[in-house]
Every structure is written in C-alpha cells, then in structure tokens.
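User: Show me a protein chain along with its predicted structure.
Assistant: Here is one chain, sequence first, then structure tokens.
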Amino acid sequence: MCNCYLETNLDRLEQNIKNIKKQYQTPVKVMCVLKANAYGHGISEIAKFLDHSQEADMFAVANAYEAMELREAGIRKHILVLSGVSQESLEHLIPESVRLTVSDMKEAKRIQETADRLNRTAFVHIKIDTGMHRIGFIPDVDFVQNQLKTIASMDHVKMEGIMSHFA
C-alpha cells in the first residue's frame, strides 16, 4: 500500500500572488479559482488561508455545493459559481450573495424570478461563448442591443461582470 500525501506550501502560494500583483502598475483584484476541492488541496483550508492573507479579493468555484461549503467555512468574500445552478440551489445562493454565472436568457429570467420572489439582489456575471458554440451568449448585435440591455434592466439582478471560458 502506498502512503501518498500532498504538501502545500501556503507561504509560496501567498508569495506567488504578491509577485503577480507586482507586475501591474495599478492595483489589481485577484479572483482565486478553487474548483474541484481546490484541485485536491482542500477548498476550505486554501480559502481560509487566502482570506486571512488578504491576497484574494474573490473566489470562484465549480458548483453550488462548493460555494455553500465556503460560506459554511466562514468565507464572506464574493464567491462566483462558474456553472449553472439548479432552482433549489438558487434558493440558497441568492440569500448568501453568491455570484451567479448567466449563460442564456432562460437562466437570466429564472434568476430574476427567484430574486424577485426572495426580494433579494442576485449578482451575476455574463458568460460569453468563446466560439466553441457550447456555453454562453453569442456576442453579436442582438446580444448587445437586446439581451444585455434586458438583463441590465431586470429588477433584483445586478450585472457585475462579463466573462468567457474556453469550454
């Protein structure tokens, strides 16, 4: 039997983030992606360390479960869920101010309806299709002139960002 273990040098992690920030003349914000249990390193442990070190401004996770795991671990910084979420998850994520990814109008309307019913603001990031034609809005004239404006005008929905992911 193999006794394998993984050792993470958290001081190096912190220093790496500081080194990246030094490369810019103006202050930058850092979103640390901790999906898949922080790639096997322990999502709660890594998030707590980065939260305490003040090097992470925001976190991103793969799914609703990971977002709630961070909230339960005491992480109060912004958390973005990179994938779509179920209706049941929306009921928990919106009150926790977890940021949501919106990939199409159907999803945007579902988030709006839930936020309206809960009388809470849903914070969203708009996902743009990278050209793989799998996930996200197609960034064409209709998107800019109609869909984006519709989302921006939704009650209880606040657009915070636009993103893409090569997927």
